[in-house]
Amino acid sequence: MRILRAAEYRSMPWKNGGGVTTEIAVSPAGAALDDFDWRISMARVESGGPFSGFAEVDRTLAVLEGEGIVLDIAGR
């Protein structure tokens, strides 16, 4: 077992510039955004915009606080 400490989390701007992601855990350790097997992160949405793509990655989103998120996919 390993304790994950907030001081060790890595923060980075989104690909589209609309927010910031704080990476809590990633495998393999130190992997970049284009070569991770899995990762757990928290994101702060700062503005609307296109959803950043991660080819062949299944994503699960959960709202932790705020009024929610609306995803518009092809006008729906």
Q: Structural class of the helices, strands and pairings?
A: mainly beta
Give unreliable regions as ranges.
none
Shape: globular
Taking all residues together, what is the mean pLDDT?
87
The N- and C-terminal alpha carbons lie at a distance of: 43 Å
Beta content comes to 25-35%
Number of strands: 3
Helix fraction?
under 10%
Strand order of the largest sheet: 1-2-3
* Radius of gyration based on Cα positions: 14 Å
Major sheet? 3 strands, antiparallel
User: What is the ordering of alpha helices and beta strands?
Assistant: EEE
The assembly state of the depicted protein chains is single chain
Outline the structure in words.
- The protein contains no helices and 3 strands.
- The chain has 76 residues and is mainly beta.
- It has one domain.
- A 3-stranded antiparallel β-sheet has the order 1-2-3, with no helix packed on it.
- A hairpin with a 5-residue loop joins strand 1 and strand 2.
- It is globular.
Topology record:
Blueprint: E1 10-13, E2 19-27, E3 38-45
Antiparallel strand pairs: 1-2, 2-3
